[in-house]
Amino acid sequence: MTTLLSRLTSFFSNATANDDEASYLCSQIIQDADQHLVASRLAEMLKNSGNAWPPKPTHAESWPDALKPYYTVYQRIAPFLPVHESSLDDAENRILIDKSRSLFAAVLDEEVDLPDVCETLEACSQSDSDLMPISGWLGFYSCIASLRHGYRWGILPVVREAQNEKSLQFPHELDIPWPYIQRRLGITSPGGSMSSNSYYNFDANRNIVYPITAGLSEEHNRTELWNSLLFVEIEDKALPLYRHISKAVQFLENDDIPSTISTLQKANDDCKAAFKHFYENMNDFNLVPSIWLPYCQGFQGWTLEGINGVSGGQNMLIRTLDSFLGVRPWPTEEEEALHLPLAQRNWLNSLRKFDIREVANQKGNEEVIKLLDHMVSQLRLWRMGHMRKMQRYQVHRPERNKMTAGKSLVRDGGVADDGAMVNHLKEMLSVRLRETK
Ligand code: HEM
User: Fold this and answer.
1) Is 12 within the bounds of a domain?
2) C-alpha to C-alpha distance for 55 and 47, rounded to whole angstroms
3) Distance from Cα 386 to the centre of ligand 1, integer Å
4) Cα–Cα 20 to 30 A to 314, which of 133, 186, 194, 428?
5) Which residue's C-alpha comes closest to atom 21 of ligand 1?
6) Residue 19, pLDDT score
7) How many beta carbons lie within 10 A of that of residue 437, not counting itself?
8) pLDDT tens readout for residues 279-306
9) Would the pLDDT of 62 be above 80?
10) Model confidence, pTM
């Protein structure tokens, strides 16, 4: 008993110490904003994430009254989304999807006062409005994106009958808030993103706010939790790395080589810590392979009008490293604007523009070049490790077509061979590795 108590006490005091460290680091980053363009972009990303990183969204308690019912709608509908056994009969699935969408429409109609919502969103969107803090916008984005994905698929696991739809009419209650969110956050996709569906889908205690496996087993709930939590915890580890990256840029530009070297050494250590966390936690206990694809990944897809859904590729750590180290091809501005909020893109673009490896080559300091190359090989090794691990998750599901959430790789008929997806992923990986010179 004493041991359990002391373990718990040490767990909570460590958690508090880590929280304190993280908020101290965040305030330092925000203070450093005027030191360099890259530093200002990093500060801007934090400010637009609730003065925190990883982002700190807030939910219904921070929204104006007219918007709060959306939270209630989600919680009322969530238990009806997942089923234990999927039907393989398209006609039966059509009935289930339509029934689920009618339920969405009825509950939205019952709870949401649309004229009130319009008026409130108009008021919240005025540049001088303080009706909804940015953290509230993040939570609201997560809520509406979760509702839109729920409506889009109707049932979970997602089924071929829904995948084969090319377009879809959403209820007004889900369409009207969307452009306001798009403008406020600076995204263009009609569906969710890694930010809305994972980063912003937590409360202050890191519990999922808009669940998709309500009423299923503990294994389902755990897999759902880790499908988002791993991305968030990786960002806990990445925060010191971002600061070191930003500092290294500044030091190198000022020709302060000793400080560049010591900062890049720290950045290499940070990178190692983040990747270690990934390797340790992407395991079959946290993320059960037979559950992940049908119950977690499917919901993240979109595919309507050829638009991609959420992909692991939208996470900030790997995009930051690719941008910092010049690992091409970078997504086009248009592609990236679909899913990455403007402040995240501005941070990445500032790193791409600086192009540190190019600058290091021009300045010709061997040690700086070596440390950057070392980060590149860490990233390369991580990509190969991730590829190996993710293959365990490509299980066959008879009720659906092959689909990677990020690439909308859907095949009509659903009998495309099982290797197709893995080959597609290997292709993606080899392009990246070729570019990682
Ligand atoms: C939670 C467990 C995870 C699973 C099961 C998983 C699985 C996958 C799958 C199937 C893909 C390819 C399909 C797609 O684009 O949607 C993918 C892509 C990707 N994932 Fe993950 N992933 C996981 C966690 C992570 C984490 C924590 C990171 C980042 C630290 C990450 C980073 C990436 C990246 C960057 C890509 C794009 C390909 C690339 O650039 O190499 N994934 N992941």
Assistant:
1) no
2) 9
3) 7
4) 133
5) 312
6) 85
7) 10
8) 999 999 999 999 999 999 999 999 999 9
9) yes
10) 0.93
Nearest to 240, CA basis, from 12, 49, 53, 381? 53
Shared-domain flag, residues 272 and 413? yes
Residue 72 belongs to domain spanning: 60-199
Residue 50 domain-assigned? no
- Both structure tokens of 49: 């994430």
Residue 369: CB within 6 Å of ligand 1?
Answer: no
Residue 18 inside a domain? The answer is no
Work out which ligand 1 atom sits closest to the CA atom of 230.
27
Lookup: tokens for 129 = 């409005």
Q: For 381-398, what is each residue's pLDDT tens digit?
A: 999 999 999 999 999 999
Binding residues for heme b: 386
DSSP designation for 117:
H
Q: Is there an atom of ligand 1 within 6 Å of 223 CB?
A: no
Residues 226/277, Cβ–Cβ less than 8 Å: no
Report the range of poorest mean pLDDT among 109-113, 170-174, 428-432: 428-432
CATH number of 373's domain:
1.20.58.480
**Whether residues 152 and 266 fall in one domain:** no
Give me the number of domains the chain comprises: 2
Distances (CA, A) of 254 to 63, 251, 384: 45, 5, 35
Instruction: Report yes or no on 13 lying in a domain.
Output: no
How far is the centre of ligand 1, averaged over its atoms, from the C-alpha of 375 (Å)? 19
What does the pLDDT average to over 342-362?
Answer: 98
Distance CA 224, CA 209 (A): 12
The terminus-to-terminus CA distance of the chain in angstroms comes to 55
